[in-house]
Amino acid sequence: MAPAIHVGPEPFEPLVKAVEAAGGEIVESLEGAEAVVWAGTEDQLGALPASVKWVQLQSAGIEPWIERIRNTPDVRFTSAVGAYASQVAEHALALLLAGTRGIARYAREHSWNPQDEIVLEGSTVAIVGAGGIGRELIRMLEPHDVEIIAVTRSGRGDTLSVEQLPTVWGNADHFVICAPATTDTEHLVGAAELEQMKPHSWIVNIARGSLIDPDALADALRDGRIGGAALDVTDPEPLPDGHPLWELALITPHVANPPSSMLRDLAKRVQENVRRYVDGAELLAPVDPEQGY
Amino acid sequence: MAPAIHVGPEPFEPLVKAVEAAGGEIVESLEGAEAVVWAGTEDQLGALPASVKWVQLQSAGIEPWIERIRNTPDVRFTSAVGAYASQVAEHALALLLAGTRGIARYAREHSWNPQDEIVLEGSTVAIVGAGGIGRELIRMLEPHDVEIIAVTRSGRGDTLSVEQLPTVWGNADHFVICAPATTDTEHLVGAAELEQMKPHSWIVNIARGSLIDPDALADALRDGRIGGAALDVTDPEPLPDGHPLWELALITPHVANPPSSMLRDLAKRVQENVRRYVDGAELLAPVDPEQGY
Question: What is the CATH superfamily name and number for domain B4-83+258-279?
Fold first, then answer.
């Protein structure tokens, strides 16, 4: 029998179609639903009826959900980790190039004032957190003739482990932060790490604002100790008007995964996961309540 | 015997070393030189003594040299076409991503104001002039899941010919102008071409300012008829203060090939061409006086 699946907080058409294409049956209310595809925030979703066995979330980062996930161990939660990886990696590359090539600075000028710029070619780029997004970014950097240092928690494959991370800050030219936000990764980049970077180093953050100590970053930028910072995520977020990072860094307002392409990518993920659910197969991106991602 | 080669207007060390590494003998004056490596402008170089048989120029575009080249048919001129291709292609990609991803706009803002942005993934990108730079750009776009339409003069290989160019403007999403500046390519993009583009289309120019009609472009941008323009080259160049394109477009001041990496790349080309000269082999990038590049 087709599983009864609720799509909310609104019956977004691409998601409804994805559920149906994968063999699910849409139910209009949470009551009686066996699974929920939730394209809204945590506080928009009420208490789950006991019928619900699985919730598909819309985002890759699931901090606001973690308490609920830990408190409802009988419900499986899947995140959207990996679903938007190529979009976000594309934005990370855009920020890295905009930074090194001086585009962020030139965009603010109204006078012809050429300066010597850094080229990415020949540099060493550290990918801190080589999960889905990081791996996509490594793929996009392949034709660019750069050295890659990839760091993962466990150091699997060709990557360095978090234990080796302290050696990375002084050795790479540029840094792209792609790691998940957990209590372990809070302020992963602070004053001590910034101190070791090179005067031309750019740091890009497309993960979560909490991974970089914003005060230490502002200090380093104000003193010209690093080349620059390009941030799609900030702490606090939204970045309030008048915050020093508006002047000191290149800020994009969490748009690495723009709405128009997000729904398209989420629909692909929903279709695949509903298909797996129907088949009794392993779901993509199950949330680990302990690790918090 | 080692050919006597003059490096000017100054004896730049990387170029001198490149000449010597390839088997040339450096001479301090133009008199008696058989070949000249000229890393300066046309008006810095006086009349050539009759001993000079070959001049290696430092840039890919050779408009200021064309009259001299036509008037001295006994001297071979080689340009730097291809020597900086990967640097310039990297800048072209940086501009394309900065444009489509809204980075040029966000760089000017001081307030959190997310908007829906275009992702490059899934779009069709036209490379108008798929020579050395265009081919490098195509290589860099490979991991991005975009359709490429490449246009060359003759339509060789997988490319469309200039005769088919009129079909391209309405069919691609974005355009990167990489064609050489000749009388044929002046205002290659004018009002009629801009008219056919899509409302979200970005146009990038890293070739020469003359390829785009600046007034027609300013009109299209002012009316919001295209997504935007990112220009590393302008007409006139330098773009004067107060020119409307400072507000309407993303301008970088001819920095696709920054000085620090330019000399390194030119030295590689000089070494290769001196080696070929010594061996009596065909030189890279001979200038065709008729075609003007």
Answer: NAD(P)-binding Rossmann-like Domain (3.40.50.720)
